[in-house]
Design brief:
single chain; 533 residues; alpha/beta; three-stranded mixed beta sheet; 19 helices; disordered N terminus
Length: 533
């Protein structure tokens, strides 16, 4: 037995008399499908929008689907470019208060990608890329090193600056030099004369590991030797890295790591679109960069198109992301030029004022939907850049066609971002600024806004502070778990399947009024906390 709602019984029984009970069940199922089809298809919301308005992530809400799998079964694998795949669709923004080597390493370990900013010299940016490519989980690849002629006062200085107390000693005081000893806290603690040379007190009877060595093998050597530090040397007894007992205790296994064919972490880097950025590009390729992002607030320019064509002529295999774009026409021009991925967003970041200053841009949900729908024809992945304030925004961006999301403010304030913490009114903070802020422009980002040659700089961003969010070791798993829960509620365990369902109308959605948006957030409380305290 079944209930048919408003469908007249005669409508169903007529074909049943002819074809029997099976036909009756088929028609009943069709009746149910039509009767229970709540909400609207994405095409109706975004393409048949008679109000002529652009939509943000908060303007839309997806209707839940049917759950037949667990959260742990959700697979978030995607592509950031045509040839570069990620197991976690997260990319850190190339901002000078967000991504340098520490952030890029952490993002890659968790299955995402970090894009190192270019508000620095070519040499400095290449050095950051090399740190990522040389990184080995649990290995200190750039340890502090001293020479035999240094004094105990130098050891005190290093300890005060970095907290390191076990310092390897090489012939010339640098990495890739012959190892001659190690100076530890036990060697110097009770010595009053701080002018003594390290050579007089250092330990020379060393326990070392020889390359190649795995973290598991190194851990076993440390366990047997009961040492706190384990120098790693090559076949010439030159120091190449250092392993700390405390670091091994902290080291995690990262099965989702984004790695290249040689098992090195993936790394992205941003460049500008002017002629001198060609030298930066070639240097980054030599440093081992995997993905190059052309960084411009308005990507549909002759400067970027010429740069794309030049790069593809010089290094056709280098994966290149163009942008930023928000319209299909902009996307068309860059796709025709040869980009391998697109970055979508203009004026939607929390610290960006482009839409107010320049009267150009587009609400992000509309931008992602339309650009991704067009780029999909050519197999070009889309990165939703900006406007991401929570896991719900990530889910909406991915559902509407983005292959990955690029995050700035959501990652700002984490331990891996550049800068130092400070306290204000009892709150632990870090500085965060837009690349269109005057402070960032003075460092070199003015070319992102075509302002290199202008005498008067017009800010298209602001600078501010954000609250300490802790380490990405805990934060990224929190974000990914939230996204997995969203996929589960929608009823899809694979990103590709979800995007197909949104495109053909199986996933339904509605617009939210201002009152509905208030209702969907925390309300009706005097105060609240998201902690478990």
């Amino acid at each position: 037995s079944f209930r048919l709602g408003r469908v007249p019984p005669a409508t169903l029984m007529a074909p049943a008399l002819k074809n029997g009970h099976a036909k009756l069940q088929e028609v009943a199922a069709d009746a149910f499908d039509g009767e229970l089809d709540d909400g609207y298809a994405a095409k109706e919301v975004f393409e048949q929008n008679k109000a002529n308005i652009g939509l943000t992530y908060d303007d839309v809400i997806f209707l839940p689907g049917h759950i037949d799998f667990g959260v742990e079964d959700v697979d978030l694998s995607s592509h950031v470019t045509k040839k570069v795949a990620l197991k976690t669709p997260f990319v850190s923004s190339p901002m000078d208060t967000v991504t340098e080597s520490a952030m890029a390493i952490a993002m890659a370990l968790h299955g995402g990608l970090g894009v190192i900013h270019y508000n620095m010299s070519i040499e400095e940016q290449c050095a950051e890329v090399r740190k990522v490519k040389k990184f080995k989980n649990g290995f200190i690849t750039e340890p502090t090193v001293l020479a035999p002629h240094h004094t105990l006062a130098d050891v005190d200085r290093v300890k005060a600056q970095s907290g390191h107390s076990g310092i390897p000693v090489t012939v010339d005081g640098g990495l890739h030099s012959k190892l001659v000893g190690i100076v530890t806290k036990r060697d110097i603690d009770f010595l009053e004369d701080r002018t003594l040379k390290i050579s007089d007190v250092m330990t020379t009877d060393l326990v070392v590991a020889t390359e190649p060595v795995t973290l598991r093998e190194a851990n076993e050597v440390l366990r047997r030797s009961k040492k706190g530090k384990l120098p790693v040397v090559n076949d010439k007894y030159e120091l190449v890295s250092l392993i700390s007992r405390t670091d091994i205790a902290k080291a995690h296994d990262y099965p989702l790591s984004s790695v290249d064919g040689e098992k090195r972490l993936l790394c992205g880097a941003a460049i500008g679109t002017r002629p001198h950025d060609r030298d930066r590009f070639l240097a980054l390729v030599d440093a081992g960069v995997d993905v190059v992002v052309l960084d411009s607030s308005q990507g549909d320019s002759v400067f970027q198109i010429d740069m794309v064509k030049w790069i593809k002529a010089q290094k056709p295999d280098v994966q290149l992301v163009g942008g930023n774009v928000v319209t299909r026409r902009q996307a068309h021009h860059l796709i025709q030029a040869g980009v391998d991925g697109l970055r979508v967003g203009m004026g939607v970041g929390s610290i960006c004022t482009t839409q107010e200053v320049c009267a150009c841009g587009r609400p992000q949900a509309s931008a992602v939907y339309h650009v991704a729908r067009y780029a999909r024809r050519f197999g070009v992945p889309v990165i939703a850049d900006g406007g991401i304030g929570n896991t719900g925004h990530i889910i909406k961006a991915l559902s509407l066609g983005a292959s990955c999301v690029m995050m700035g403010s959501l990652l700002a304030g984490t331990a891996e971002t550049p800068g130092v913490y400070f306290f204000q009114d009892g709150v632990r903070l870090k500085r965060y600024r837009g690349m269109g802020s005057l402070a960032a422009m003075k460092q070199g980002s003015e070319k992102r806004y075509f302002a290199s040659s202008t005498k008067v700089k017009v800010a298209q961003g602001v600078a501010g502070t954000v609250v300490d969010k802790g380490s990405l070791k805990n934060y990224i798993p929190y974000l990914t778990t939230g996204v997995r829960h969203g996929f589960q509620d929608l009823g899809y365990a694979r990103l590709a399947n979800l995007q197909d369902a949104v495109a053909d109308g199986r996933v339904r959605m509605e617009l939210r009024s201002a009152a509905a948006q208030r209702e969907g957030g925390v309300h009706g409380l005097h105060s609240y906390s998201t902690s478990d305290a």
